[in-house]
Amino acid sequence: MKNILNFITVLTSFFLLNSCANYTIPMDSFKQQFAGIDSTTLEQVKVRGPMGESFEYPANPIKIIHCLDKKGQEIKLENKPSIEIRFTHGQENKRTIFYFDRVIISDSNVVGVQSRFISAIGKSIPLHDITKIEVQDGKKDFKYVSQK
After folding, report:
1. Helix residue ranges per DSSP H, the chain
2. In 3D, which of 62, 8, 1, 71 has the Cα closest to residue 34?
3. What pTM was estimated for this model as a whole?
4. Which residues, listed in sequence order, are joined to residue 126 by a DSSP beta bridge?
């Protein structure tokens, strides 16, 4: 029994120390960071995945993401293919996750892509329905190979 408790303690500590940090982006800051970015300002990027596969797609040109940590302190997070953005929205507080570099604002909606492999898997969320915006590095092994 003691070995099981020790194992659980070690496992819990491991997950707490290695969990992804979540940051928030206030709506005004989000709008400001995406001001002037639309489908015509996207940059073509090439990304290498964990198995060596590569993908090319248009990405938003944001290099640094301005967000807040849990204490409300401003954090500057480098944009990279592993960054995920989660929107809480609607009356039921539904959560939708996109890859940050695949998000734009179009006609008062956030438009994003939810899959690296199938670009057609996307969604649109009205800005006025969004109650919370969070970002995190999903620690997925995707890296930019080139940006144009």
Report:
1. 2-18, 27-34
2. 62
3. 0.82
4. 109
